[in-house]
Specification:
alpha/beta, about 250 residues, five-stranded mixed sheet, globular
Length: about 250
């Protein structure tokens, strides 16, 4: 059977995250689902896999069930497939941030940039006044990226503020467009840029994964493959599976 993989996140206030951990773990294990979910005061992030019906049940419970009380009504979801189970077990972890930027004043639950649907992305970045930035880490960019995008050369997402201070200027770079694997890093990066005085900040809704799914290859600006943080490791257009590369680890 082909397994269903769900990558998900939402920035939302979760002050009761400690009380949520065990019921969420019990829900996932009871459905036979494996993977990792991160809970932080700023929201939820993770990737899980299981039989399609089980994954659909979990997503329905997250969005509409009593556990989160309707707070995950704007959950960003991306589904793909796996031939084999890409995770060894189910983990629910409590973290300070669901994606680590180490900028405590940045709050994506309050302020983020302008979302851009995949179908509108090419027109936006065709403007020569738009600075296009791949917010992922250097090893991910090396595997594949958007044509014409700037590589920050970061080893980890928390290096991004240093890249901004060294490279970008809000007086000069008035329009900035960013993308990442599933949308979470550039959502937080957009919040950071706005806090630094950048006036027009855009980010690709649903990230590279949605772009690869929605935009036909003949219209695509994507070059190469997209690294994903599980045993599938690389996806192409249509979210098709690629041959494994050497093992890396981390989260979008």
């Amino acid at each position: 059977m082909t397994l269903k993989v769900a990558a998900l996140y939402q920035f939302v206030s979760l002050p009761d995250l400690a009380e949520l951990r065990q019921p969420l773990l019990d829900l996932c294990t009871g459905l036979g689902i494996r993977g990792t979910l991160l809970l932080a005061p700023e929201g939820i992030n993770g990737t899980v896999a299981g039989e399609p019906e089980a994954v659909d049940t979990l997503m329905s419970e997250l969005r509409h069930g009593a556990l989160f009380g309707g707070r995950l009504d704007n959950l960003e979801l991306k589904f793909s497939a796996a031939r084999d189970m890409p995770f060894g077990r189910m983990k629910v972890r409590l973290k300070r941030e669901i994606v680590t930027l180490k900028q405590p004043r940045v709050d994506p639950t309050q302020t983020v940039g302008t979302y851009v649907d995949p179908g509108d992305w090419n027109a936006l970045v065709a403007d020569p006044d738009v600075v296009v930035i791949d917010t992922r880490n250097a090893f991910e960019v090396a595997l594949g990226t958007m044509r014409g995008a700037m590589d920050p050369g970061t080893a980890r997402f928390s290096d991004f503020p240093d890249f901004v201070s060294r490279t970008l200027d809000p007086a000069r770079d008035r329009r900035v467009a960013m993308f990442c694997t599933g949308g979470i890093r550039c959502e937080k990066a957009s919040s950071y840029l706005l806090s630094q005085g950048f006036s027009e900040v855009y980010h690709l809704k649903g990230g590279i994964l949605r772009y690869l799914e929605d935009v036909p290859p003949e219209q695509s600006l994507w070059q190469g493959e997209c690294f994903v943080f599980d045993e599938r490791e690389a996806l192409g257009h249509g979210l098709s599976l690629r041959e494994p590369m050497e093992d890396e680890s981390g989260h979008d």
